[in-house]
Amino acid sequence: MTDRPILFSGPMVRALLDGRKTQTRRDLTKTFARYPQLEGYETNGTLKPIDGRSVPCVEFVHSNLGLWHPEENPSGRSGWYVPLKAAVGDRLWVKESWWIATMYSYGTTPGGCEISPPPLAHRKRDPVHYDADGNPPNVGNRTYGPEGLRGGSFAAPDPYAVWLKKPSIHMPRWASRLTLIVTEVRVERLQDITNEDCIAEGVPVHPNENAPRVCPTQDAFAREHGLISHYGASYRRVWEDINGNGSWDDNPWVAAYSFRVIKQNIDQIEKVAA
Question: What superkingdom does the record give (predicted)?
């Protein structure tokens, strides 16, 4: 079991919190570019290490690169493998946009110089607010008076002065509030997503409750004839909001992770279990 961070946008964090999201897809284009040969097996059929170390991998049939050539690798298999972010059983701690309450001075040095805030990794006692929950509370304090701040800035409760917004990439492990336990990993083309997968990705269910939410036969027909379902169209918008216009049409290879959501910090889970 390995712990790894994973970034999510605000709407996807809301879907995780609401219990609507149990899958995520990540583009493997850069991964394939880094490992163009994808020679996954030694001649005895065992997996080769990547960069001299073991990384999470999954075996799959690569339709473009074809199958193994027996004369080159007699003990090889009819498949390929690709290094991935996580394997089944790994834990992913979610990084999201957030705010942290900050003082303008964290004390003074013996020479009288003000001390700036310490690195985020050492600010576990400072209050945090999650951007997916809306703006932080704008409260009166001794720095800005009883009405707090205006114009998109937010005063923090005493002894703090102001809320500072931080991007998801800068969220430290201690500030994460969501943990994902990986239950399945697949490698497939983006447009192979099914209606059931779209719903697991957090796409809203069809407003007509009498309409079937999942239909494998319709999924197969749509893929065969180049069509896109109602759910596929909704997920396409989500994908292109994150990855840019035209990224759906590129139909890249993706890693599809299924997971169980735990609404706790990854390190608090261990403390509760103990």
Answer: Bacteria
